[in-house]
Structures are given as structure tokens and as C-alpha cells.
Structure to design on (373 residues):
């Protein structure tokens, strides 16, 4: 088998710039982009996104702040923003810091730490759920978080709490909120392009269904797995082989994968990652029923790694697939990634698929959060 070359040989590269400009210089540029996007989402379902709206200084700062938080901030300070279950102090069962082993995929603990943020709940929104205590808070930070001049105090119900922000490193929150603003613009451009790609009025459907995207963002820190294990070979993006694990299932034991195999459950995932190679893996189906392989989705300088989620697969009528992927970081160093999940509105209704009826995204999301994947 030929030696590894460029990861672009396996994953397509999409130039999203025509959908970030209100008036593209080339009238056919958007159509060309949409056609390329359709092909990439049809197969393999993962791709690189280039010529986006993210300044290099911003992406570098986002990764640097995450790395410094995970590797230099004392454990006690991390614990201050720890994710807590519903009813435990400020916990809402979703937002906050997770220790190594807190995150569970398919019933097994993952080998990474992270912080989870969700779109803030705005007072008066249809999905706002009353807290057991009906008191209001005069805390300016809570008022700013809810953006409604007042906010409730804990205990919070599931997903109804406040985002937890590190006090250190300095500038963390301001930088990440700037990044969120950029990602919301980019996410809207990507789903617009997807609507054009699918046709049949889907551009308007996606615009309506993501107007108030219930976005999710994670900062994730991956220490190297404790020890390598002998396993079947995994094909790299360039066609070479390396040691890896099989299709998923029983071989993914606790402590042997950094994040277990799963699909994402929303619209589209936009992944910013450091330069670590050989960690993120995508399962690509083969021609036979049980045929397939894991390929590495290594970072490409200046580009994001993008994949579609379960809701987009439903909207496409199964034409596009939400692919399983995992992280197996056995290399040296501490890997950092920041995935941004551009999702439907909480109340968005998404078509059913074979054997299942229509779903309301917020209800689907809450079920996933309860089960932690």
C-alpha cells in the first residue's frame, strides 16, 4: 500500500466564501459551491472548509486559551465551573467543565476533559422552563447571560442554567464570545449553502429552522491515552496504515479511546483543532454490509473539519449521512479541539426517518443530554 500523503486525498475541500459574500463576484460561484457541497455530504459526509470568516489570530487565540486552561489552571479552579446535575447548586445537567472520564459515549467513559457551553436561555422564549425557585437575580453577570434584564436563581431544570466561564486565563470569555459570533455567521452560511444544494425550497426551510440556532460549543483537552494496545490497522487519509482499532463496538473499552464512536445529533459540526495528526477518525462504509474502514481526518492548515449531524440526515431524506467518528489520541503531546455545533432552533420540527416520526429538536437534544450520547 502506498505511503501516506495528503489528507485532502480522502476528504473534499469546500470553499465557502461565495456564501459569506452578499454579492459574489461570480454569479455561478454559489451554485458551484453548492454542487461541491452536495457531493461532499453524499460521500464521505466529512469535508474541509476553507476561505471562511475566521481570522487566524482568533483561531490561534481560541486554541491557545483552551490549552492553557487545561494544562495550567489548578484543579480547584476548574472544579469551580464543573458541570453539575440538575438540582445540585447551579447545575443544569449540561453546562460546565468535565473531568477526564465524566463524558460518556455508548456507556463508556472517554479519556478527555472539556467545557460545554450552550446557547443562553432568554427569558420569555417558548422553551423557557420555570425554575423551582421563582426568584430573580440582580447579579449583572446573570442578567448579561440571559439578556433579558433579570434572571432566575438556581436550582435550574435541564439545559436551563447559565454558561460557566473560566476566570483564567485572562480574556477567555471575551475571546470565546467573539468566536461564537463568527461561528454563528459561518454556520448560517453553511446551512444556506446546504439548502441550495438540496433544492426544493430547503434554503428557506433551513433559514427558518436555524434562525435562533440552539448552538453548542465544546473546548476539549485530550491527554495521550495511557498506553497503546495491539489492534488491527487503520487506514490513513493518504492510503497508508497505522495501528488502530476495529469498527467500534466491543473493542472501545474505557481508557482505550479518547472519545468513543458516535454521530453528532444536530445540523452541522464545525471543528477547529490543533495540528495533532492521527487522532480524529471517521468510519467510511464499504461496498459490503460489514465492509468499511476508519480513516484519519487530520487537520488541514487554515481549514475547519466539518461533518453533518443526525438532523441534517433527516432533512436530506437520507441522501446525506451522519457519519460515526471517534478520537484515538495515542501520539505525543496534549491535543486540543473546539467543535462548534450549529443546530436547529429548540422548537424546530425535523422530518422523521424510516421507523421514526417527526421530532422536535429540543426534545431530541434533551434526551441525548440525559444519556450523555
Amino acid at each position: 500500500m502506498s505511503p501516506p500523503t495528503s489528507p485532502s486525498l480522502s476528504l473534499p475541500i469546500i470553499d465557502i466564501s461565495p456564501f459569506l459574500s452578499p454579492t459574489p463576484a461570480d454569479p455561478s460561484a454559489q451554485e458551484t459551491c453548492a454542487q461541491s457541497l452536495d457531493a461532499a455530504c453524499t460521500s464521505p459526509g466529512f469535508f474541509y472548509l476553507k476561505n471562511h470568516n475566521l481570522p487566524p489570530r482568533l483561531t490561534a487565540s481560541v486554541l491557545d486559551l483552551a490549552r492553557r486552561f487545561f494544562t495550567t489552571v489548578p484543579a480547584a479552579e476548574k472544579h469551580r465551573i464543573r458541570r453539575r446535575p440538575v438540582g445540585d447548586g447551579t447545575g443544569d445537567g449540561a453546562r460546565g467543565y468535565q473531568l477526564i472520564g465524566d463524558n460518556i459515549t455508548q456507556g463508556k467513559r472517554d479519556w478527555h476533559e472539556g467545557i460545554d457551553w450552550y446557547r443562553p436561555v432568554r427569558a420569555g422564549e417558548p422553551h423557557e422552563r420555570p425554575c423551582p425557585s421563582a426568584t430573580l437575580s440582580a447579579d449583572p453577570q446573570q442578567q448579561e447571560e440571559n439578556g433579558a434584564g433579570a434572571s432566575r436563581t438556581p436550582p435550574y431544570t435541564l439545559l436551563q442554567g447559565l454558561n460557566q466561564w473560566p476566570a483564567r486565563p485572562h480574556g477567555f470569555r471575551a475571546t470565546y464570545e467573539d468566536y461564537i459570533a463568527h461561528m454563528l455567521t459561518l454556520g448560517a452560511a453553511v446551512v444556506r449553502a446546504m439548502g441550495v444544494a438540496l433544492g426544493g425550497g430547503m434554503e428557506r426551510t433551513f433559514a427558518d429552522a436555524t434562525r435562533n440556532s440552539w448552538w453548542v460549543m465544546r473546548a476539549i483537552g485530550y491527554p495521550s491515552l495511557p498506553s497503546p494496545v495491539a489492534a488491527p490497522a487503520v487506514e490513513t487519509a493518504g492510503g497508508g496504515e497505522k495501528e488502530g482499532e476495529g469498527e467500534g463496538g466491543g473493542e472501545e473499552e474505557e481508557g482505550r479511546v479518547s472519545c468513543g464512536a458516535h454521530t453528532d445529533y444536530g445540523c452541522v459540526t464545525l471543528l477547529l483543532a490543533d495540528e495533532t495528526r492521527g487522532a480524529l477518525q471517521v468510519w467510511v462504509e464499504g461496498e459490503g454490509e460489514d465492509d468499511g474502514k476508519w480513516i484519519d481526518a487530520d487537520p488541514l492548515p487554515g481549514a475547519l473539519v466539518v461533518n453533518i449531524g443526525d438532523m441534517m440526515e433527516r432533512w436530506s431524506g437520507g441522501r446525506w449521512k451522519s457519519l460515526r467518528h471517534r478520537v484515538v489520541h495515542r501520539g505525543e503531546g496534549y491535543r486540543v479541539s473546539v467543535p462548534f455545533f450549529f443546530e436547529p432552533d429548540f422548537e424546530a420540527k425535523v422530518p422523521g426517518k424510516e421507523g421514526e416520526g417527526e421530532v422536535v429538536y429540543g426534545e431530541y437534544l434533551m434526551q441525548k443530554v440525559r444519556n450523555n450520547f
Notes: Helices lie at 29-42, 56-72, 75-80, 140-146, 172-198, 202-209, 310-315, 361-371.
